[in-house]
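Recall the central idea of this unit: under ordinary conditions, the amino acid sequence of a chain determines the structure it adopts. In this exercise we apply that idea directly, starting from the sequence alone.
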Amino acid sequence: MEMKQALMTGPGKIIYNQVSVPDVGNKDIKIKIKKIGVCGSDIHVNHGKHPYTSFPVVQGHEVSGEVIEVGNEVSNFSKGDRVTVQPQEVCGKCFPCQNGMYHVCEDLKVMGFQTTGMASEFFVVNENKVTMLPDSITWDEGAMVEPLAVAIHAVQRVSAIKNKNVLVIGGGPIGNLVAQTAKAFGASSVVVSELSKSRIDIAEKCGLKTINSSEEELSEGILRNFGDRKADVIFECVGSSYTVAQAIDVARKGSTVVIVGVVSDLPQINMGFVQDHELTILGSAMYQSSDFDDAVKLIEKGEIQLEKLITNHVDFDNYIDAYSIIDTKKDQVMKVMIDMEERSE
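Accordingly, the structure predicted from this sequence is:
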Protein backbone atom coordinates (compact mmCIF):
# COMPACT_ATOMS: atom_id res chain seq x y z
CA MET A 1 0.00 0.00 0.00
CA GLU A 2 1.33 3.43 -0.97
CA MET A 3 0.54 6.93 0.24
CA LYS A 4 1.27 10.51 -0.74
CA GLN A 5 3.87 12.22 1.44
CA ALA A 6 4.97 15.88 1.45
CA LEU A 7 8.74 16.23 1.61
CA MET A 8 10.41 19.58 2.26
CA THR A 9 13.64 19.37 0.28
CA GLY A 10 14.93 22.83 1.13
CA PRO A 11 13.77 26.27 2.23
CA GLY A 12 10.46 27.00 0.51
CA LYS A 13 10.44 23.75 -1.48
CA ILE A 14 7.99 20.87 -1.05
CA ILE A 15 7.66 17.86 -3.35
CA TYR A 16 5.23 14.95 -3.15
CA ASN A 17 6.37 11.35 -3.21
CA GLN A 18 4.49 8.06 -3.33
CA VAL A 19 5.94 5.98 -0.50
CA SER A 20 5.03 2.70 1.14
CA VAL A 21 2.84 2.85 4.22
CA PRO A 22 4.88 1.39 7.12
CA ASP A 23 3.86 -1.98 8.49
CA VAL A 24 1.84 -2.00 11.69
CA GLY A 25 3.77 -3.61 14.56
CA ASN A 26 2.14 -5.38 17.48
CA LYS A 27 1.85 -2.19 19.55
CA ASP A 28 1.35 0.23 16.66
CA ILE A 29 -1.60 2.18 15.32
CA LYS A 30 -2.16 3.22 11.71
CA ILE A 31 -3.81 6.63 11.46
CA LYS A 32 -5.48 8.28 8.48
CA ILE A 33 -4.41 11.91 8.91
CA LYS A 34 -7.26 14.42 8.74
CA LYS A 35 -5.72 17.78 9.69
CA ILE A 36 -2.23 19.22 10.14
CA GLY A 37 -1.57 22.52 11.88
CA VAL A 38 1.34 24.72 10.83
CA CYS A 39 3.47 25.87 13.77
CA GLY A 40 5.92 28.72 14.25
CA SER A 41 8.74 26.18 14.41
CA ASP A 42 7.63 24.82 11.02
CA ILE A 43 8.02 28.33 9.64
CA HIS A 44 11.62 28.48 10.88
CA VAL A 45 12.28 25.22 9.00
CA ASN A 46 10.70 26.62 5.85
CA HIS A 47 13.05 29.60 6.06
CA GLY A 48 16.04 27.30 6.62
CA LYS A 49 16.63 28.85 10.05
CA HIS A 50 15.73 26.03 12.43
CA PRO A 51 18.99 25.17 14.24
CA TYR A 52 18.07 21.52 14.87
CA THR A 53 16.45 20.51 11.57
CA SER A 54 18.16 19.51 8.34
CA PHE A 55 16.75 18.81 4.88
CA PRO A 56 15.05 16.84 3.52
CA VAL A 57 12.37 16.58 6.20
CA VAL A 58 8.75 15.47 6.41
CA GLN A 59 6.99 18.05 8.57
CA GLY A 60 3.73 17.80 10.50
CA HIS A 61 3.51 17.50 14.28
CA GLU A 62 0.10 19.03 15.08
CA VAL A 63 -2.42 16.51 13.79
CA SER A 64 -5.75 14.79 14.15
CA GLY A 65 -6.75 11.56 12.47
CA GLU A 66 -8.80 8.38 12.42
CA VAL A 67 -7.50 4.96 13.45
CA ILE A 68 -7.80 2.52 10.56
CA GLU A 69 -5.72 -0.39 11.89
CA VAL A 70 -4.25 -1.53 15.21
CA GLY A 71 -1.54 -4.03 16.13
CA ASN A 72 -2.24 -7.37 17.76
CA GLU A 73 -1.26 -6.17 21.23
CA VAL A 74 -3.13 -2.85 21.15
CA SER A 75 -6.04 -2.85 23.58
CA ASN A 76 -6.87 0.81 24.22
CA PHE A 77 -7.66 1.81 20.63
CA SER A 78 -9.76 0.36 17.86
CA LYS A 79 -10.62 1.08 14.24
CA GLY A 80 -12.65 4.25 13.86
CA ASP A 81 -11.30 6.02 16.95
CA ARG A 82 -10.50 9.72 16.65
CA VAL A 83 -7.00 10.53 17.88
CA THR A 84 -4.08 12.92 18.00
CA VAL A 85 -0.38 12.16 18.41
CA GLN A 86 2.22 13.31 20.94
CA PRO A 87 5.17 13.82 18.54
CA GLN A 88 8.15 13.10 20.80
CA GLU A 89 10.66 10.27 20.54
CA VAL A 90 12.76 9.82 23.70
CA CYS A 91 15.58 7.50 24.74
CA GLY A 92 14.09 6.37 28.06
CA LYS A 93 17.61 6.02 29.54
CA CYS A 94 18.98 9.49 30.32
CA PHE A 95 18.57 11.31 33.64
CA PRO A 96 15.50 13.34 32.57
CA CYS A 97 13.79 10.23 31.17
CA GLN A 98 14.54 8.25 34.32
CA ASN A 99 13.25 11.04 36.58
CA GLY A 100 9.90 11.98 35.12
CA MET A 101 11.16 14.62 32.67
CA TYR A 102 11.15 12.67 29.42
CA HIS A 103 9.88 15.73 27.55
CA VAL A 104 13.39 17.19 27.90
CA CYS A 105 15.17 13.94 27.05
CA GLU A 106 18.88 14.39 26.36
CA ASP A 107 18.32 12.72 22.97
CA LEU A 108 14.87 14.17 22.25
CA LYS A 109 13.65 13.90 18.67
CA VAL A 110 10.49 15.65 17.55
CA MET A 111 8.47 14.34 14.62
CA GLY A 112 8.69 16.81 11.78
CA PHE A 113 12.09 18.11 12.85
CA GLN A 114 14.65 15.48 13.85
CA THR A 115 12.55 12.50 12.71
CA THR A 116 9.75 11.85 10.22
CA GLY A 117 6.65 13.96 10.72
CA MET A 118 3.04 13.28 9.82
CA ALA A 119 2.64 15.21 6.55
CA SER A 120 1.35 12.16 4.74
CA GLU A 121 -1.95 10.42 4.10
CA PHE A 122 -1.25 7.79 6.76
CA PHE A 123 1.01 7.53 9.78
CA VAL A 124 2.02 4.52 11.87
CA VAL A 125 3.00 5.16 15.49
CA ASN A 126 3.31 3.33 18.80
CA GLU A 127 0.10 3.42 20.84
CA ASN A 128 1.87 5.12 23.77
CA LYS A 129 2.11 8.33 21.71
CA VAL A 130 -1.60 8.43 20.86
CA THR A 131 -4.32 10.39 22.69
CA MET A 132 -8.02 9.67 22.22
CA LEU A 133 -10.32 12.45 21.03
CA PRO A 134 -14.01 12.43 21.97
CA ASP A 135 -16.59 12.79 19.20
CA SER A 136 -17.45 16.28 20.43
CA ILE A 137 -14.02 17.59 19.34
CA THR A 138 -13.72 18.54 15.68
CA TRP A 139 -10.80 17.48 13.48
CA ASP A 140 -9.55 21.08 13.53
CA GLU A 141 -9.69 21.21 17.32
CA GLY A 142 -8.01 17.82 17.53
CA ALA A 143 -5.04 19.12 15.56
CA MET A 144 -4.73 21.97 18.09
CA VAL A 145 -4.42 19.70 21.12
CA GLU A 146 -0.63 19.79 20.66
CA PRO A 147 -0.21 23.60 20.85
CA LEU A 148 -2.74 23.71 23.69
CA ALA A 149 -0.62 21.12 25.53
CA VAL A 150 2.35 23.50 25.14
CA ALA A 151 0.28 26.21 26.83
CA ILE A 152 -0.95 23.92 29.60
CA HIS A 153 2.58 22.76 30.38
CA ALA A 154 3.75 26.39 30.55
CA VAL A 155 0.96 27.45 32.90
CA GLN A 156 1.55 24.43 35.12
CA ARG A 157 5.22 25.36 35.47
CA VAL A 158 3.84 27.85 38.01
CA SER A 159 2.95 26.02 41.20
CA ALA A 160 -0.29 27.92 41.80
CA ILE A 161 -1.84 30.10 39.09
CA LYS A 162 -5.22 30.43 40.80
CA ASN A 163 -6.08 33.98 41.93
CA LYS A 164 -2.91 35.36 40.31
CA ASN A 165 -2.60 38.39 38.03
CA VAL A 166 -1.20 37.07 34.75
CA LEU A 167 0.43 39.01 31.92
CA VAL A 168 1.10 37.26 28.62
CA ILE A 169 3.53 39.01 26.27
CA GLY A 170 2.64 37.97 22.71
CA GLY A 171 -0.81 37.27 21.28
CA GLY A 172 0.11 34.67 18.68
CA PRO A 173 -1.37 31.16 18.87
CA ILE A 174 0.74 30.03 21.85
CA GLY A 175 0.37 33.31 23.74
CA ASN A 176 -3.38 33.29 23.18
CA LEU A 177 -3.63 29.68 24.39
CA VAL A 178 -1.44 30.37 27.42
CA ALA A 179 -3.75 33.25 28.36
CA GLN A 180 -6.90 31.16 27.85
CA THR A 181 -5.39 28.31 29.88
CA ALA A 182 -4.39 30.59 32.77
CA LYS A 183 -7.95 31.93 32.82
CA ALA A 184 -9.41 28.41 32.73
CA PHE A 185 -7.13 27.39 35.62
CA GLY A 186 -8.45 30.19 37.82
CA ALA A 187 -6.16 33.18 37.39
CA SER A 188 -7.92 36.24 38.78
CA SER A 189 -7.01 38.51 35.88
CA VAL A 190 -5.34 37.70 32.55
CA VAL A 191 -4.07 40.32 30.11
CA VAL A 192 -2.38 39.85 26.71
CA SER A 193 0.14 42.40 25.45
CA GLU A 194 0.38 42.49 21.66
CA LEU A 195 1.40 44.86 18.85
CA SER A 196 -0.90 43.47 16.14
CA LYS A 197 -4.44 44.85 15.99
CA SER A 198 -5.75 41.68 14.33
CA ARG A 199 -4.31 39.47 17.06
CA ILE A 200 -5.67 41.81 19.71
CA ASP A 201 -9.11 41.47 18.13
CA ILE A 202 -8.86 37.67 18.22
CA ALA A 203 -7.74 37.71 21.85
CA GLU A 204 -10.71 39.87 22.78
CA LYS A 205 -13.07 37.57 20.87
CA CYS A 206 -11.68 34.79 23.07
CA GLY A 207 -12.70 36.76 26.16
CA LEU A 208 -9.25 38.09 27.03
CA LYS A 209 -8.22 41.57 28.17
CA THR A 210 -5.50 43.21 26.09
CA ILE A 211 -2.82 45.88 26.01
CA ASN A 212 -2.04 47.34 22.59
CA SER A 213 1.67 47.84 23.16
CA SER A 214 2.01 49.79 19.91
CA GLU A 215 -0.18 52.51 21.42
CA GLU A 216 0.46 52.25 25.16
CA GLU A 217 3.57 51.72 27.25
CA LEU A 218 3.47 48.20 28.66
CA SER A 219 4.23 49.47 32.18
CA GLU A 220 1.24 51.82 31.98
CA GLY A 221 -1.01 49.07 30.65
CA ILE A 222 0.03 46.86 33.56
CA LEU A 223 -0.92 49.54 36.10
CA ARG A 224 -4.22 50.19 34.32
CA ASN A 225 -5.18 46.52 34.42
CA PHE A 226 -3.63 45.27 37.65
CA GLY A 227 -3.03 48.36 39.77
CA ASP A 228 -0.02 48.59 42.07
CA ARG A 229 0.03 44.81 42.59
CA LYS A 230 1.04 44.53 38.92
CA ALA A 231 1.55 41.04 37.45
CA ASP A 232 2.22 38.08 39.70
CA VAL A 233 3.20 35.92 36.72
CA ILE A 234 4.50 36.97 33.29
CA PHE A 235 4.60 34.56 30.35
CA GLU A 236 6.97 35.53 27.52
CA CYS A 237 5.48 33.98 24.36
CA VAL A 238 7.30 35.84 21.58
CA GLY A 239 10.81 34.45 21.73
CA SER A 240 12.80 37.62 21.08
CA SER A 241 15.62 39.06 23.15
CA TYR A 242 13.66 42.32 23.42
CA THR A 243 10.53 40.76 24.93
CA VAL A 244 12.55 38.54 27.29
CA ALA A 245 14.27 41.65 28.65
CA GLN A 246 10.95 43.47 28.68
CA ALA A 247 9.27 40.72 30.70
CA ILE A 248 11.93 41.10 33.38
CA ASP A 249 11.92 44.90 33.28
CA VAL A 250 8.17 45.16 33.95
CA ALA A 251 8.13 42.53 36.70
CA ARG A 252 7.42 43.67 40.22
CA LYS A 253 9.36 42.36 43.19
CA GLY A 254 8.63 38.68 43.74
CA SER A 255 7.11 38.04 40.30
CA THR A 256 7.59 34.86 38.29
CA VAL A 257 8.64 35.06 34.64
CA VAL A 258 8.10 32.02 32.42
CA ILE A 259 9.95 31.88 29.10
CA VAL A 260 7.71 30.03 26.64
CA GLY A 261 8.87 31.52 23.32
CA VAL A 262 11.78 29.89 21.52
CA VAL A 263 14.59 32.45 21.84
CA SER A 264 17.17 32.12 19.06
CA ASP A 265 19.43 35.05 20.00
CA LEU A 266 21.11 35.93 23.29
CA PRO A 267 19.12 38.44 25.39
CA GLN A 268 20.85 40.98 27.58
CA ILE A 269 19.22 40.52 30.97
CA ASN A 270 19.62 42.83 33.96
CA MET A 271 20.64 40.13 36.46
CA GLY A 272 21.10 42.73 39.19
CA PHE A 273 17.40 43.54 38.78
CA VAL A 274 16.55 39.82 38.91
CA GLN A 275 18.50 39.43 42.15
CA ASP A 276 17.27 42.61 43.80
CA HIS A 277 13.63 41.91 42.88
CA GLU A 278 13.97 38.23 43.84
CA LEU A 279 12.38 37.17 40.57
CA THR A 280 11.75 33.55 39.67
CA ILE A 281 12.74 32.80 36.06
CA LEU A 282 11.40 29.55 34.59
CA GLY A 283 11.74 27.90 31.22
CA SER A 284 8.96 25.84 29.66
CA ALA A 285 9.59 23.25 26.95
CA MET A 286 7.07 21.06 25.16
CA TYR A 287 4.73 18.84 27.23
CA GLN A 288 3.97 15.43 28.67
CA SER A 289 1.09 13.00 28.11
CA SER A 290 -0.82 14.48 31.05
CA ASP A 291 -0.78 17.86 29.28
CA PHE A 292 -2.43 16.26 26.25
CA ASP A 293 -5.06 14.70 28.50
CA ASP A 294 -5.71 18.06 30.19
CA ALA A 295 -5.96 19.75 26.79
CA VAL A 296 -8.66 17.34 25.66
CA LYS A 297 -10.59 17.89 28.92
CA LEU A 298 -10.47 21.68 28.60
CA ILE A 299 -11.66 21.56 24.98
CA GLU A 300 -14.41 19.09 25.83
CA LYS A 301 -15.66 21.34 28.64
CA GLY A 302 -15.75 24.32 26.26
CA GLU A 303 -13.24 26.32 28.31
CA ILE A 304 -10.85 27.01 25.40
CA GLN A 305 -11.72 28.82 22.17
CA LEU A 306 -9.83 27.16 19.30
CA GLU A 307 -11.83 27.76 16.12
CA LYS A 308 -11.35 31.54 16.48
CA LEU A 309 -7.59 31.00 16.16
CA ILE A 310 -7.84 29.21 12.80
CA THR A 311 -7.53 31.94 10.19
CA ASN A 312 -6.73 29.92 7.05
CA HIS A 313 -7.21 26.49 5.46
CA VAL A 314 -5.00 25.01 2.72
CA ASP A 315 -5.39 21.73 0.82
CA PHE A 316 -2.67 19.13 1.30
CA ASP A 317 -1.77 19.36 -2.40
CA ASN A 318 -0.99 23.06 -1.89
CA TYR A 319 0.99 22.68 1.36
CA ILE A 320 3.59 25.29 0.39
CA ASP A 321 0.82 27.89 0.05
CA ALA A 322 0.43 27.81 3.84
CA TYR A 323 3.89 29.30 4.17
CA SER A 324 3.24 31.91 1.49
CA ILE A 325 0.12 33.02 3.38
CA ILE A 326 2.07 33.25 6.63
CA ASP A 327 4.96 35.16 5.03
CA THR A 328 2.78 37.64 3.16
CA LYS A 329 0.00 38.25 5.69
CA LYS A 330 2.27 37.94 8.73
CA ASP A 331 0.48 38.98 11.93
CA GLN A 332 -2.96 38.76 10.31
CA VAL A 333 -2.49 34.99 10.35
CA MET A 334 -2.85 32.89 13.48
CA LYS A 335 -3.21 29.18 12.73
CA VAL A 336 -3.12 27.75 9.20
CA MET A 337 -4.70 24.31 8.93
CA ILE A 338 -3.76 21.79 6.25
CA ASP A 339 -6.84 19.85 5.10
CA MET A 340 -6.05 16.29 4.05
CA GLU A 341 -9.52 15.95 2.52
CA GLU A 342 -11.81 18.40 0.78
CA ARG A 343 -13.70 20.47 3.30
CA SER A 344 -17.49 20.27 3.48
CA GLU A 345 -18.87 23.77 3.85
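The chain has two domains: 2-144+306-339, 150-283.
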